[in-house]
Specification:
binds NADPH dihydro-nicotinamide-adenine-dinucleotide phosphate, Malate dehydrogenase, binds magnesium ion, Rossmann fold, alpha/beta, Malic_N_dom, binds pyruvic acid, four-stranded parallel β-sheet
């Protein structure tokens, strides 16, 4: 453990601090170059944009730039550690945007007093970017923040911990339930956590066919049920009319455990109580609700996923956010709507059923083969097919649902 700690610190510190930098896309060597890039030449695109704001997409980096914006109130599963402490995660998201979808991305950490202050700050800078990826903002404030910003901005605003997580988790769950021989509309779900990720995931599962009455959601006070009087409007959506009160009450005979809460909150004894052939996605980062070794030691009929890169079945929003934004930016979608999100779910789920190319295996030297099954319910983040497959599906859904300003698919999807 201490070895990975030091390696991670060294990775972030050397050879230069941090993980991202700005690079130039135009020559800036001669005085003529400077006359074009800066004064006097720069005045020309200024005038063009002043006369028509859409020209910002033509003459600036707006159309390929996404801001990753956080206030550090729910940094992974580490909690509310403030905006500055969230910066490594936000730089990390920017790295992933560039690495996987060639989207330029900048991290912005906002110190604010009220929720309205945060919304006003983001709204004020939004026109700079082609899209805004909100990250690690805790519930329930995240719901109002996203709703307001979508209303006030004319670029896609997407809270990754809600929708990126929901899209990937739903894709993995559809496949895992199929492998386990279970139907989503029969399955009983236990969701530990009732925050940004949990509410969005369970809402997405319902859109994919899960029955709300088969969902037991828990927060720090236990099961969310109809007789509780301390529920916010978002938790109330999942209030179950039940006498069950504890994790042990609801985990008995459950088909699915979804963890979006914190480390080590699910025990081996809990897992032993689940129905035959269960699905356990323990998605808290960096440490899951139960370690896969422990879960596998208890029973051999389960499918296990975590949010981490170092175990099979990484259930993590990295499989979505670079690609959904690629698709949205490419057709200049004004929003990321439900049609685009569902298109991403099925594009990701379907890719896991395709034969895996050698170059993907080469990126995972500890794995000798990968094929659709209990240890491979989702594609690997390094799979180069994610970019065309997910972006194409998302762009097409944006066009079909009428939110795209460009109504032809990019030719680079035709690979
Ligand atoms: N793998 C992935 O792709 C992703 C994983 N996650 C993980 O999900 C977790 C939650 O993130 P997010 O939704 O953004 O955060 P939020 O702060 O919005 O929500 C956290 C939720 O977890 C609940 N919780 C915390 N501790 C416990 C506990 N001991 N018992 C029961 N419930 C508990 C909280 O309960 P209460 O409401 O009572 O405070 C709250 O409902 C994090 O660990 C994060 O790493 C998040 C996004 C993506
Ligand atoms: C993966 C991620 O976004 C999280 O754990 O918050
Ligand atoms: Mg996050």
């Amino acid at each position: 453990m201490s070895d990975i700690r030091q390696q991670a610190l060294d990775y972030h510190e050397f050879p230069v601090p941090g993980k991202t930098a700005v690079c130039l896309t135009k020559p800036a060597q001669s005085s003529h170059d400077l006359a074009l890039a800066y004064s006097p030449g720069v005045a020309e695109p200024v005038r063009e944009i002043a006369s028509n704001p859409e020209n910002a997409y033509r003459y600036t980096n707006k159309g390929n730039t996404v801001a990753v914006i956080s206030n550090g109130t729910a940094i992974l599963g580490l909690g509310n550690l403030g905006p500055l402490a969230s910066k490594p995660v936000m730089e990390g998201k920017s790295l992933l945007f560039k690495r996987f979808a060639n989207i330029d991305s900048i991290d912005i950490e906002v110190k604010h007093r009220t929720t309205e202050d945060f919304i006003n700050t983001v709204e004020a800078i939004a026109d700079t970017f082609g899209g805004i990826n909100l990250e690690d903002i805790k519930a329930p404030e995240c719901f109002e923040i996203e709703r307001e910003l979508i209303k006030r901005c004319n670029i896609p605003v997407f809270h990754d911990d809600q929708h990126g997580t929901a899209i990937v988790t739903a894709a993995g769950m559809i496949n895992a339930l199929e492998i386990q021989g279970k139907k989503i509309d029969d399955a009983v779900f236990v969701c530990l956590g009732a925050g940004a990720a949990a509410i969005a995931c369970m809402s997405m599962f319902v859109k994919c066919g899960a029955l709300r009455e088969n969902v037991y959601m828990l927060d720090r006070q236990g099961v969310i049920h109809t007789r509780r009087e301390d529920l916010n409007e978002y938790k109330a959506l999942f209030a179950n009319n039940t006498d069950k009160r504890t994790l042990q009450d609801v985990i008995k005979d459950a088909d699915v455990f979804l963890g979006l809460s914190g480390a080590d909150l699910l025990t081996a004894d809990d897992i032993a109580l689940m129905a035959p052939n269960p699905v356990i996605f323990a998605c808290s980062n960096p440490d899951p609700e139960i370690k896969p070794e422990l879960a596998h030691a208890i029973r051999n009929d389960l499918i296990m996923g975590t949010g981490r890169s170092d175990y099979p079945n990484q259930v993590n929003n990295v499989l979505c956010f670079p690609f959904i934004f690629r698709g949205a930016l490419d057709v200049r979608a004004q929003v990321i709507n439900d049609e685009m999100k569902l298109a991403a779910v099925y594009a990701i789920a379907n890719l896991a059923k395709e034969p895996v190319p050698e170059e993907v295996l080469a990126a995972y030297p500890k794995v000798s083969s990968l094929s659709f099954g209990a240890e491979y319910v989702l594609p690997k983040p390094m799979d180069p097919r994610l970019l065309p497959n997910v972006a194409r599906a998302v762009s097409q859904a944006a066009i079909d649902s009428g939110v795209a300003k460009i109504t032809t698919l990019p030719t680079e999807y035709n690979v």
